[in-house]
Structures are given as C-alpha cells and as structure tokens.
Amino acid sequence: MRLNRLFSVAMLSIIFGGTASAQQPYGGCWHPEHVKNWSPETDKNAKFNRSKVPLAKRFKEPTLMKANKNQFYEGQVCNATILFPTCSSCPSQGANNFLGYQPTYWQYMDKLVYWAGSASEGIIIPPPAPSTDAAHQSGVKSLGQIFFPPYAFGGNQAWVREMLTKENGSYIFAKKLYEIAKYMGFDGWFINQESGGSTLSEWAGFIKEFNALADADGNSHMEIQWYDASGSPSPTILKSHKNTSQFLEYGANGDYRDQASQLGCTKEETFSKIYAGIQVVNSGHTGFSYYLNRSMPTTGHVGSIDLFCPEERIWKDNVKNLLGSDDTGPSAYAAIQKTFKNEEQMWVNQEGDPTVTSTTSWPGISNRVLERSTITNMPFVSSFCVGVGKHRFVEGKKEGTQDWYHSGVQSIMPTWRWWIENKGNLSASINWDDAYNYGSSMEVSGSLTTGDHLMRLYKTMIPVTAGGTLRLVYKTTTPGTLEMKLATESSTTPDVTLTDATVTEKNGWTIADYDLASLNGKTIYMIALNMKGETEVPYYQLKLGELAVLPAAYAPASVTVENLASTTTLGAEKSDVRLTWDYTYNDDFDHFDIYKKYENGERTLVGQTRGEAFYVPTFVRNGVDNFL
User: Which residue in 200, 326, 612, 624 has its CB near the most CB atoms, within 10 A?
Assistant: First the structure.
C-alpha cells in the first residue's frame, strides 16, 4: 500500500464569467449499438470512469491464522451487488452526500460483480471506478455487467444476436468489451443471459476470444462469469478458459469437486469456477445460514457462493426514502450508521467479533471464511477511511465541511473487525466526526479494566530487510496505555513488543514512530495494539487516525501531473467544474487532494481521488473574485 500524502501539486486557473457548461459525469450504462464504436477519445466521461489502482496480489500465510476453528481458506465469495440504485445516474466520482455506500469487508470477498442495468436504461454496465479502486487494493476482482433480461422485463433477442456478431470471423463485441475493461481498469464481465436466442457453444467462442485478447495483452487475470439460470455447471462454458466461472441458480449449493475432470480443471480450481447463488434479497442479510452451511460447513468447505444483492437489505432499505431529498445531515448519518451495523452482522456476525462461533441462527461469514490480505511490503498505510465522511481532513486539520462519499479513497480496514481480548464493555466503531486523513477514524471506547486488552489489527507478510518504521497516529483520553505488538511467526500470538517510540504531535494527534531495525531478517505476520490498564479507566476512548509501516528514511517517489485541464467556463455567480489530468501510478502514490482556491487566497478541500479526473459540484462565487 502507499503513503497517504499528496506528492505533486498542479495548479489551474479558471476565469469567472459566461455561462456554466460543466455537467455531472456518470458511469456507463449502454445498449450494444452504443458500444460497438466506443473509444475513450469519444466518450467525454471516460477518464472519470477509469480506475487506476492495480489488482493487488493476495497471499496465503504459511500457517493459517484463524480467528475461529470454523474458518477455511478454500471456498470463495462473489458479491454480486447493487452499488447504486440506477446505473444511468451513478456519479462517476462519488457525490456530496452521506448516503453513498460500498462494501468495506473486502477480506471476506474474492470477486465483486456490479449488479445493474435494465432494458430501458442500458444492458452493458462497467463497474464504478471508485468501487474497482477499493476492491483492487484488497485483491478483489471487479466485474461489469452484461444483462440480457427475460422477455417479461424487456428482454430483446436482437441484443443477443448483435452481441454475437462476427466480422471477418471474429466476435467484434468480445474485442470491444476487452478494450473497455482494459481502459477502465476492471477485470472482466458478468454475462447474465436470460433472453435466449443463442447457444452455449456461441458464447464459449465469444469467451475464448475475449480471454485470448486479454492473455495476449498480458492481462491473464481477466474473467467472464456466466449466468443463464441453470442449476448445473456447464462444461461448454467453463472449459472455454481457465478463468471462466459460473453463477449457479439459487439453491444449487453443494459439492462440485467430483466434476473437475469434466470441466478440465483440478478439484481445488472448482472453488474459483463454480459459485452457488444465494438470494440474499429474499432471505435478508442474516437469513441464509442454510445455504452458507451447505457450501461451507464447519468441517471444511465444499463449494463457493455468489451473494445476490445483499446491499438491498444492508443499505438500500435504510436510504431509499432519503435519496435525493434528505441525503445529508442527521437522517443520513443515522441511515449509514444502521448500514454499517447491518454490514457487520452479515460479514462478521451478530456479536461483531470474528472469534465468536455464534450459537444463534446466523453464524456470520467470518465463521466460515478465513480472512484474506494483500499487505506484503512497505510502505503500507491505512487511514481507516470507509469512503464516506462528514468532513475532509488532511493530517488532522479539517479542510472541508461538506458531507461526501467516494469509495475510491477507502483505506484497507483492519483484517479482524473486531478482535479484542479481555474486551469487557470495550467496543470498536467508525468515527466520522474526527479523522487524521480523509473522513473517518477508528474508535475504541468503554471501560478499560486492569490488565491487557490485545486488539489484533492486520494480517500481513511484510519482510523486514533494512529496518523501517511502524507509525501509529492516535488520540486517547489516557496516555501511557498503548503498546504495539507484532507477530514474526505465522501466528495470531504476538512475540514482539515495540518500545522507545519517537513521539511528536500534529494538529491534536499523537504520532508514535517505532524503529524496526531489530527485526531485520524477520517477517511481520500480524500487527496488533495492546490497551494496557494499570488501573481501571471507567471512560476510556482511543481514536486511531493512521497506521503505517514505512521503509527506513522513507522518501516516496513523486507523481507528476500532466495535461491538467478543464473544459469549464465558470458562470457569473455559480458553476461546477470538470477536471482531467494524466499521471503514472506508482507504489508510493495514495491519492490527490483537490482544493478550490479563490483569488483572495481562501481555499477549501473539495475532493480526494486516486483517479485522473474529478468533478466539483455546483458552488457559489466568492464575492468579486475574477478567477478560481
């Protein structure tokens, strides 16, 4: 992961006057005729819809680091979910409201499918670029949607035949769909074929051509996931390419490993190829234990699962009456707090503790799936950002006060949420009122009893070869209670306690830097924090603003911004702005801070992004300023 700083600064002045001409960019939502000749040069929103964060590689630790005995690694989870209520009005780079939401429990997911589209809006829908950014940093593939609806929902077999058009012996849409995925930075497509009008062999040929293009271009991770309402694996489809997978009809959970030879793969590979669908919309986000247990029993996994639209119940039920009308302020805050509680219940369990092997009817996904991680090198930085905020912060200073959401600036959240030993009534939560960077921090509060309260944070596999620094940025009501602990074996039991931190202060936050030179030649497998009570503290509070593991004498490589431009003419009194630029991603880059600076020197942080474009919503001119 990368250092959370702005490494390069570029300035652009825009003159007030004339008629405002910018407009909100939205994600793609197309019919086939609009895709045939698509190119980024002719799509005015292309740069706004482009993910720049590469797909991180996950690791499997040498000895499994389990939070509970029921966790196994083999079974996979695909989250086929709604990321915005309507694809045609999904803002490309988030928006200035508090109701936007994306999943944050990526450690339990392997693939993300954007479930979107309709006959009237469009049937070819790339995933939102911010969603891909968030998924990629945690090693989760991001797939767009190609939706051929049933006849009752406007399905048209003409679209199917158009998609399967061949010219000079080649599937022209296979090429175009690869070009879109490559440019926009996502990992392939989910084909939902419920219109009929085609054969499996035609689609197998289409998929082969798509992946042949990707493989030849060095993108051998690209994938097509197939659905046609069948409850049985299709050898014709699944043998088309090693990456091709299938979403089986709801209720088809079971063990398909004995079909490996028919599918041209190993038994182990069936876990990444065959996913049994679970209708979470109907069951509710904690109501599918029967199907979870059929694929992932406590004795070991036999299959993988595809969750159909869990965000309908986790998020959409809470916000549907607020969207577009009451999307900022107290009602929105309450709705998103409820959303995060729902999310915790599904992905972890009712207790919000992955160590609990729940005795309730809902075990939680953490009671079946071993947490995944991508944290294998320095620099690694987390600002505990969940992609939605009431304010915008830079190094502890509040630089913006507008409610916002932008999932593309999510941090990698702790691997275990929340694993606290000797917990008592201590609880962990997201704090949206105070942050070090972005818009949220992590808070632990309650009664701190005497003794140790070990909180395991991150599963890692970071080799220490030339020293380094572990940095913790925090606020606490009770100084002297914190210890940083590490595991240098593949274990959840720490064997190192860091001491002698260099401590500084910045904007009300304490920054503790620990030297890692004594760990040279070792590997950090776990990062934990111990809250140590010498005496009982009835009202304890701890806020974590940033955790980082940095190389010694860290000097991050700069990022150069080129071709910064705006096509906007500011209105006489108010306007919005579309900004675009070019940059080359590197491992030290984290994000850009976008400031609005007036002629009088006043400035406000209006956005943060990892992309190469940003939209600044409508704002009012500041007095008599002539330029921005």
Answer: 612
Rounded to whole angstroms, the Cα distance separating 612 from 49 reads: 9
Residues constituting the chain? 628
Helix (H) or strand (E) holding 283: helix 280-283
Vertex 198: Cα angle to 193 and 199 (nearest 5): 100
Cα 423 from Cα 448, distance rounded (Å): 8
**C-alpha span between 219 and 215 (Å, rounded):** 5
- CB contact at 8 A, 405 and 323: no
DSSP state of 238: H
Structure tokens at 446: 């309650």
Helix and strand totals (H; E) in the chain: 12, 32
Query: Residue 166 CB: number of other CB atoms within 10 A?
Result: 14
pLDDT at residue 89 in the model: 87
Listed in sequence order, the residues at least 6 apart from 559 whose beta carbon sits closer than 8 Å to its beta carbon are 7, 8, 583, 584, 585, 586, 588, 589
Distance from the Cα of residue 135 to its chain's centroid? 3
What are the strands, taking DSSP E only, across 195-329? 223-227, 245-248, 274-278, 304-308
CB half-sphere exposure, 105, CA atoms < 13 A: 29
d(CA 16, CA 619): 12
What confidence score (pLDDT) does residue 12 get? Answer: 57
Please enumerate in sequence order all residues whose Cβ is within 8 A of that of 492, keeping only pairs 6 or more positions apart, or say none.
65, 66, 67, 456, 526
Full-model pTM: 0.95
**How far is residue 531's CA from residue 67's CA, in Å, rounded to a whole number?**
19
Biggest alpha carbon–alpha carbon distance for the chain: 79
Low-confidence winner among 5-19, 153-167, 190-204 (lowest mean pLDDT): 5-19
Residues pairing with 80 in the sheet? 113, 308
DSSP string computed for 311-345: HIIIIIHHHTTTTTTS-SSHHHHHHHHHHHHHHHH
Q: Determine the pLDDT at residue 22.
A: 62
In angstroms, the CA 377 to CA 549 distance is 8
Q: What is the pLDDT of residue 13?
A: 52
pLDDT band at residue 102 under the 50/70/90 scheme: confident
Mean pLDDT, rounded, of the chain: 93
| Top mean-pLDDT range of 157-166, 553-562, 596-605 | 157-166
* Angstrom distance (rounded) from CA 162 to CA 280: 32
Q: What is the pLDDT of residue 382?
A: 98
Segment 186-233, tens digit of pLDDT: 999 999 999 999 999 999 999 999 999 999 999 999 999 999 999 999
The residue with tokens 């630089």 is 399
3-class state of residue 478 by DSSP: coil
Q: What CA–CA distance (Å, rounded) separates 71 from 357?
A: 10
Of the candidates 457, 398, 408, which has an alpha carbon nearest to the alpha carbon of residue 433? 398
Two structure tokens written together for 343: 């999310």
Are the C-beta atoms of 102 and 130 separated by less than 8 Å?
yes
Measured distance CA(466)–CA(461) in Å, rounded: 15
